[in-house]
Amino acid sequence: MVVLPVLAPRFLESQYHLKGTEIAIPVALVYTMSTFGSVGGGWLPMNLIKKDWPVFKARKTSMFIYALAVIPIIFAQILGGVNMWLAVIVIGIAASAHQAWSANIFTTVSDMFPKRTIGSVTGLGGMFGSIGGVFLSLAVQKNLFVYYRSIGKIEIAYYIMFFVCGSAYILAWLIMHFLVPKMKPIELD
Question: At what angle do helices 84-112 and 43-50 cross, to 10 degrees?
Answer without folding.
Answer: 50
